[in-house]
Structures are given as structure tokens and as C-alpha cells.
Amino acid sequence: MNQRDDYSRREFLAFGGAAAVLRSPFHHLPWWRPKEVAIAGARFQIVRSKLKHKPSRRRYLLIHGDEQTAREVLLQHMRTHSGVAFVAEGTTRTVPIASGQIDPNRMFSRRGAEISLKSLNPNWTAEQVGAALDLLDGERERFLDAILPSGRDLMVALHNNTEYSFADEEPVSDRSARNQPGDLHAFFLCTDLADYQALAASPYNAVLQARMRTPDDGSLSRRAAARRLRYVNLEVKEGDAARQREMLDWVEAHLPE
Ligand SMILES: [Zn+2]
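# zinc ion complex -> structure
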């Protein structure tokens, strides 16, 4: 039994047969709604929030399990806002794949995944890398179809950083607005021009990355841009929950659903 099957079986048992993965044998039943979506060893709990007075088609994502501030802010947000959130189940930054690890925000292109796999699993053979890349190729589109919004709906991904900042993205972006030079760790990265125009007029730092200026690093924002979807990364320094909450509230109030 491979690791995936083992996971699936355990989840199946844990949820008393109500199913937890997209490949569940129950997926054809009308009442069945997945509680989880996975790619390789990256597993995301699906949190659905429906407030009667304020329905929303917004989607949210916590992709890095170790970003504790973003996790807290997002889960708190879902108690008072409608939408669907995909929340990393583990608490580590990397996720298991075969006998190794990968950065989950580098899985979305073969090139990005290869760089991440080679750097995180230096002892792997070329065959092991190739097998992991083939596994991702086989699961990627199904996963993206499950989590990415459709049409003009918005997805907001919450991240935390320690070193990384607006200064890293500014030179490789289509446009940038350095609105808050005193806190470059807090910024928006978006893929849609209209969203950028709104965010650039906010009190916060913002960059637009709609065109591909650098090689595809396998991040989800690149895939969203390639699909011409509305996607916003909301970055703040780890621990700065107040700032992340404030910026998320700004998005809710100012960006169209
Ligand atoms: Zn992150």
C-alpha cells in the first residue's frame, strides 16, 4: 500500500465513512461534499462558511502549514465571513512526497517542483525526482480545478514571512506601489489589473504580476495568472496578526467579490 492509499484509508476511517478525499467512492452521491483536498502529501481542510445575510463566492487559502499567524487570522475570519477556505492540515512548511519533501507553493509547475525537490532532497536520484514530478503532473490539474475560483471570483492566499518582503517582488513585477515604506514585509501581490488598481490606492504596499517576467517558480499565483484568474497574496511578517487582519478587512471592503 503506498502512502497515499494509506492516508486515504485512515481519513476514511477517521470520518466514519463520510469520506474525506476527492477520490472517495461516495463522490457520486448528492449529499457528499469533500472535507479535504490533497495533492501528493499536501492536504487541505475545506472550511465552508455560509452566513445567510451575506453569501460570498470568495475563496481563501493557507498553503504553508507553518505560517501560524496567517492560520489564526484566516480561521477567525471564516467565523464572520462567507466563503470557502482551504487550510493546510500540517504545521510544517514542507509536505511529504514519496520518501521526501517539497514546498507546497512550488508544486504548480514541473520546473518549480524540480528545483524544490532537488534542493530539499539532495540525496535523491534523478529517477526519484522524475517519479515525484510525474506524480505531481498526474494530480496537479485536478487539484487546481478543485481549489481555484472560476470566472471572476477572487482567491486570497494568506502568508507570513520573516526575511522575504515587498523589496524582493518590486523589481520583478509589472507594477508596484510602495505605499508603506516603513513595513515592506506587509504587502499584496495580485494577478489582476483592476484589483491592482484598487490595492495600489490602498494604504498598503502592492505589486501586480500578471505577465511572466521571470521563469515559472511553480507558485500558485503564477498558475492563477496563467489562467487569468483573480488571485491576491496577502503577506505580513510572522506574528503581525493585527496587520494581517486589517489588510484582509480592507480586501473584503474594497475588492469586488
Ligand atoms: Zn507562505
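# post-check
The pocket of zinc ion is lined by residues 64, 67, 159 (CB under 6 Å).
Residues 190 and 232 are 4 Å apart (CA to CA).
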